[in-house]
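Target chain:
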Amino acid sequence: MNAVLDKAIPILIEPLVQMGVYRSQEEALKNLVLRYVQEQIDEAEQEIARFQKKYGMSFEEWSDSLVGRATIEEEDDWMEWESARDMLESWQQIKADIEQINVSTDLTNPP
């Protein structure tokens, strides 16, 4: 990590520890990152739900219905919907990876 982050993170996180919101700076940082990741997941899910409502079917069903007849607008929506699905999958994997980290031991005992 760079020197600026090494100084900034404790300054920003320590008040949360002092208030008793978190037991440690590491736990606080992990939780805050997980909250951000969850926000990204929620946004992707909302985008997917918007398309499902707009077209009244799942992405797979709608994709099948477009074969050989898609308009430019539908192609644009298809790309946005596919992108939202990809982003959702990526954010869910990031969340799973972060949740596996035990900040009490993994950071003090690296492999």
